[in-house]
Amino acid sequence: MSEFVSVHTSRDQASDEPRIATLLLSRPPTNALTRQVCREIVEAAEDLGQRQDLAAIIVFGGHEIFSAGEDMPELQTLDTDEAEAAAQLCQTAVEALAAVPRPTIAAVTGYALGAGLSLALAADWRVSGDNAKFGATEILAGMAPVGGGATRLAAAVGPSKARDLVFTGRFVDAREALALGLVDELVAPDGVYDAALTRARRFLDYPPDVLAAAKAAFDRP
Prior knowledge:
Elements: E1 5-11, E2 18-25, H1 35-50, E3 56-60, H2 72-75, H3 80-98, E4 104-108, E5 111-113, H4 115-121, E6 125-129, E7 133-135, H5 149-157, H6 159-168, E8 172-173, H7 174-180, E9 185-187, H8 192-201, H9 208-216
Parallel strand pairs: 2-3, 3-4, 4-6, 5-7, 6-9
Antiparallel strand pairs: 1-2, 7-8
Helix pairs in contact: 1-3, 3-4, 4-5, 5-6
Family: Belongs to the enoyl-CoA hydratase/isomerase family.
Function: Could possibly oxidize fatty acids using specific components.
Pfam family, one: ECH_1
């Protein structure tokens, strides 16, 4: 049974079928990515990937904060081997979200930092509150990005800007994130989920298998 990650579906008004799913992170106060949270993300993402009725998925951390990244208090209790396993599990969670064969939208509120930013980057688009903060902050804790975070960041903003963010760990406000290409749309903080839902509804007219094939086309050489 999942404790911190849940999946909710909204129904298509025309057919009354659940066509849009929301993967909800709920581990107050910061949605830190503990090992348990990462395991639950993997399970939820794999289950969503098998759903044939879905047109799109929204990834949401609630109205306060998307995710502050890996849980540092937990990491500080781990030995070297356990820490390496935790980093691999976090990477697996990010990759599992990226592999969901449907359009995915991260609805970002508050903060998306460290591995939380990597998780947001695993989605196809990012809708953000105009007061949100972003950062590849791992270096501030003596760590490097996991889950392909640096590679995805470079794909979003370009290699030079990505290196600046990764090597400094500096915070980026929402307007700079939009200018960099880190996010795709800015809205008022209270409208983040609704804006993501509006974007997800654009895909309701397309068969799920076609959407899956279209997404897979980006992985081909």
